[in-house]
């Protein structure tokens, strides 16, 4: 095909493209690569399938989509000027009272048309623009699927099947010459509606009520219901063909009449330019970075607290999967956050691979072994790990508390939380943040408007298009959740994107960690002990110190400084963990910048003196103590009645409660018992001993095929070109000596095959072969033999665009290419 010959099909248009253009198509529509098409014809066929076209339309911005919608209601093929007129209008007043922004549309249309051409949704030269048939079917109007433009069918489509007599009545009422030829009648009526002068004269005679009816239908939907006895205004419109029947009770405003009333525009509000992202506030970039770093450090502390909360085995998993509402509320109270925020942290830890199910019979959530490795990392690396996991996650915490399609509640860590669009929306929201100057916080409403312009089809709720500011569609909700989550995680600070987040998006985790490190305070190796049995940590603590202090004391308050309180229960907890009183005194003396207060030393000694005085074991349970007076005191206490104790010996009491309940009951009564083993040894409770088996983080659910890299694109283009050359190669007929009866593969005897390929190797010519591989799959190939020896032929394969070796016994036959075929 010459370069000046207009393409007649989409396949011809694709065949005329360069390799770079084909690679651009495959990059924009990666679903066309699964699997790699055999040739250009198969590529064009696949590009016109409904699923692929729908996916391509969903990735268009609003103006490119409006351009495609205008082509769907234009004649096929449509000249460029006709398309431009549908978008800009004919310059007449349509009653909307606004400028038509024709200059902006004229400037933006070439780029929109180039996008549609690149994605193989439109093909042909400007004089004959063709919208792919499947796209036209999806976007063209019908009673079942009204056009997005709000236009109805043409006069020709609406009058199909109408009797000649009825057409004659319409022509007479409209003041047109009589004709009994249905085709001429339809042409005359359509000509009236497209003639602005005659159409204006006709509408000048219309009743005011009839014009009101037209006003309600002109911008869609163009369909209306009528009664068996319509009102005079409606009857006036029906008599003149301005309303044409679709059924016995439904009428439609024909497209030509609607375009006249719209002043020729296919869309009420063309949007050639993306909405401007408005700045809500401008702040000092350094203050933004510090605020984001502080929030990021709080995020690390919150996740650490969550891991500690579930350290010894977390909540049980619901039968349907996920976390119960009660357990979510309990976690929110322990973390001192709201339930939606707690759900976000739980999902983030799960997505980062720090939490998982333990897989036991009584299945529970618990930290994974990877959580210990994460805790050992520097703070900046822990933050980049969380942020990277959040960016890629398809699990969407904002859905928790809502309902799925079947009306079932969506729970934290439960199924059905994956939304494949979430990563793309997050990246796009942050890219819009990054497009503003450093320290600038965008206005959320303009952010949503921009997202809707970029992906209008995906921003359509089930009930139809959403109004500006309506956050009912999924992408808008994900965008709002992204803004909130980014602030919680420290991606943004005071509403603006931080420099460490910019580095994470542009350069990767290592660069982000390097930016964040100077903003995070160094961990401290000391606390300040106070006389009121509290300890103040003036900043983040080193991990060993923080872990020991969390066992020895209870956190009373958090903030810039963390306040710990020592209580008898917290000291007993440290003793239960195997620490002796001397160890606790030494620990406090080593890590306190202030002298150890005397009340704290007395508290430790007093609890240690009583700790282990009572021993609990399994009988159902028993209590033994060398001091009979203590056991007498327990029996006399009314609070022990629920434990159902009885004396077995002067120093032993038996209980019908289990050992755990007995331990808790005596501790509530003010005693400090210790559990013992069957051998009489004191059982030491190790903190943080429960871990799940090694677990992999949840895999994000992809939205579609991944975007191929440059190497894969180049190989795919070569394969498609080679397959197209082989499929279109002109070859001489080969004799069917094998008796195949004229099969599609050439058939020659082994001797003829050997002689032909040897001759081709000597002359350097190409031949056409039939080949059957080891799996029995047959194919046709165009090869240029280079060497024939040892039962193999080595040749350049034009189909695969590479040199390959073929066993001669697998070649079914060989034929020479026609003389006029170029290779």
The count of strands amounts to 27
- Numbering strands along the chain, what is their spatial order in the largest sheet? 20-21-19-18-22
Helical content band = 40-55%
Secondary structure category? alpha+beta
Question: What separation lies between the terminal Cα atoms?
Answer: 15 Å
The main pleated sheet reads as: 5 strands, mixed
Strand content: 5-15%
State the low-pLDDT regions, or none.
Answer: 459-472, 734-743
Protein traits:
about 800 residues; alpha+beta; five-stranded mixed beta sheet; 33 helices
Report a brief summary of the structure.
44% of the residues lie in helices and 12% in strands.
List the topology elements.
Layout: H1 10-15, H2 19-28, H3 40-47, H4 50-58, H5 62-73, H6 80-88, H7 102-118, E1 122-123, E2 130-131, H8 133-139, H9 155-158, H10 164-173, H11 182-194, H12 196-204, H13 208-217, E3 223-225, H14 232-239, E4 244-245, E5 250-252, H15 255-261, E6 279-282, H16 285-309, H17 325-335, H18 339-351, E7 355-357, E8 365-367, H19 369-375, H20 379-392, H21 422-435, E9 440-442, H22 444-454, E10 460-461, E11 464-465, H23 474-489, E12 492-493, E13 496-497, H24 499-506, H25 509-516, E14 528-530, E15 534-537, H26 543-552, E16 554-557, E17 562-565, H27 568-576, H28 581-591, H29 598-610, E18 615-617, E19 621-624, H30 628-636, E20 645-649, E21 652-655, H31 659-668, E22 674-675, H32 710-728, H33 750-763, E23 767-772, E24 778-789, E25 792-797, E26 802-807, E27 811-816
Helix pairs in contact: 2-32, 5-7, 5-8, 10-11, 13-14, 17-18, 20-25, 21-23, 22-23, 24-25, 27-29
